[in-house]
Here is the input.
Amino acid sequence: MIDYRLIPRQATAAQADVLRRVDLACQELRPIEDRYYLERRVNSEVAPLFARHGVLGFMIPQEFGGLGMDVPLYVWGMERVGQEGTGPRTFFSCHISIGASVIAYWGNSEQQQRYLPDAASGKRVFGFGLTEPDAGSNPAEMQTRFEKTSAGYVLNGQKKWIGNAAEGGTLVTFARDPQTNKISAFLMDTNTPGYQADIIPHKLGMPTAGTCLVTYTNCEVPRANLLGEEGHGLKIAYTALMGGRLGVASGSVGIIADCLHESLTYARSRQQFGKPIGRHQLVQRHLGRMAVKLESTRALVAAAALRKSEYDADRTNKALRLETDLLIAQTKYLAVNAAQEAAHDAIQIFGGNGFLLTNRPARHYADARACQIYEGTNEILEQKIAVGYLGPEYEAFSG
Ligand SMILES: Cc1cc2nc3c(=O)[nH]c(=O)nc-3n(C[C@H](O)[C@H](O)[C@H](O)COP(=O)(O)OP(=O)(O)OC[C@H]3O[C@@H](n4cnc5c(N)ncnc54)[C@H](O)[C@@H]3O)c2cc1C
Here is the structure.
């Protein structure tokens, strides 16, 4: 029998200790998340709860109050959070993977000192504002623009589908210089005058994650909030998406683990034709396929995590960057689709009860759909992967 809260065998004592604390936070989160999900409300308790357990700061360096998780530990942590639901895992993706980690990676030491302790303590929530109403798969088509002033920059435009944008914090965001046409990255505090975030209603899934339409109207961003060098915005965005996609893949492994756990429990207890449905061979086929998906996605996530660690230690190595980016794209693609299939099969095992949002498979099924869209749609990743093997001259689109 599998333990779905498994601490990986290869974890060191220190890593196992962190994962136990993440696990405790996840156990405490479960009934809270259940309530918010069924009420279809944004769960605002994730950050304070994980902060109380001292495990909000995932990959934030320890000198700034974070856990300083290395990449293998990060993916295990994200898998565990993913078991609780894609809503809370998406909170972590926005706050850490494509939020605070980007500042840790690209920010200067003043920006790191100013923002990272607040990210680790939960005083400030982070997000990533790249997508726009008319620029999704190709961020290079973004319309949000900035003008330079004596004090810094003024941003105007709109960003769509942005997580953690309403909670009071900071977005890593992007805008174009109409003079040079180049895109730069900025740190946009959500209390900036002219900043407005409106929750997007009626989502298919992930009701507990706040997803916003954000409008910048003459938002003044001080020069100190330029992230990296002017004109390096897309490089920063695409680098951030490597860590982001690995997090989505890990969370998807968590979905599969939870679907398998729920399905095993149900298959043992539900009786039809005078025996537990787990004794029917076609039900066993669903379980077997789910278990194979769990182990295979976990293995690829672990391999991609190691490759990412190597790249993080050797950032100027362009060949390694391409290899890492490609492996992570493959990992995300495999894991999100496997998670969707696992949730589909878990619903089938639950029969009519699978159709209820009060049971976990139905929620995973609705939520996992977002993972096939954000941080690179299936189609964009399929092409990216093919071109990774064919060669850049086969590039079908820019970016
Ligand atoms: C729940 C949710 C949360 C999100 N959170 C964030 C966030 O926090 N921050 C953020 O910046 N963004 C976020 N996004 C946005 C997400 O990254 C985009 O929705 C995604 O990149 C696709 O962009 P789009 O919606 O504009 O679709 P489009 O780009 O309009 O694509 C529509 C369809 O056309 C296909 N397509 C487009 N171009 C090609 C091509 N060249 N070849 C083949 N097919 C193509 C796509 O694959 C897709 O199937 C989120 C989205 C969702 C749904």
Notes: The mean pLDDT is 96.
